[in-house]
Amino acid sequence: MTTAFVLGGGGVLGAVEVGMLRALLERDIVPDLVLGTSVGALNGAMVARQPDLAVVERLTELWAATARSRDVYGDRPLRTVRRAVTSGTHIYSSAPLRQRLEEELGDTTFEDLPVRLGVCAASIERAAEHWFTSGPLVPAILASAAVPGLLPPAEIDGEHFLDGGLVNSVPVGRAVELGATRVFVLQVGRIDRPLKPPTRPWEVARVSFEVARRHRFMRDMATIPEGVEAHVLPAVGTSSKDDSLLAHRALLDGHGGSVQSRIDATYDASRRYLDDVLGS
Prior knowledge:
Layout: E1 3-7, H1 16-26, E2 33-37, H2 39-49, H3 54-69, H4 77-87, H5 95-105, E3 116-123, E4 128-132, H6 137-144, E5 154-156, E6 159-163, H7 165-168, H8 172-177, E7 182-186, H9 201-222, E8 229-232, H10 245-252, H11 259-278
């Protein structure tokens, strides 16, 4: 049996994936393959580097520190407006995220990891899905997490990349292609939320993105071959209201439920799910 962890994107809501990881690792479910997109690339790299319960504590510390410092999406409003005007493409600098990743991962490469890892990004020049599987981790994660409009495109070897969620937000199909026979999907809870037509111009892009990502995920789930076991772990404590930039800032400010409470709630739900499907 080849076990894959598939970690989807979701910005600061990606903290809930830590609760899922805890539930899995407590049952001694360890991955042979980890695939991550956007924030799932960061969480995925951490578990691929340390596939045991100790990684849960470290990830919890990282997410709590992010919420306290607000350094990744924490610029003052005037500075973000100035950057949007001068750059024309984004409102946040990628420098704080790069610094956080370098402090945690240093010069670690894919080849250094005990578990095989794949990180998804969207190539601008090739208009294609790209999978990083070798070389340094930090540039690959930055490329995978380059949210359009929020962070600048990441440049690697002359090629420019945007957030992997544009092409494969929850890469279940990729796991099957690579030989996984048991897949655990770690996602932030958006999949089952009902969508409503946008009523404001800034909602159009978000709703369009959601239609595309859900279509890809549902298609991949529907075409999983016989003999492959797939489990979508439940996320708790997130809602459609959490998808806006203002909601992300509120979460970082500690409003609307703390990071820790969302991790804990998702852990409880995932533990119950695994008990039901795999036996207690």
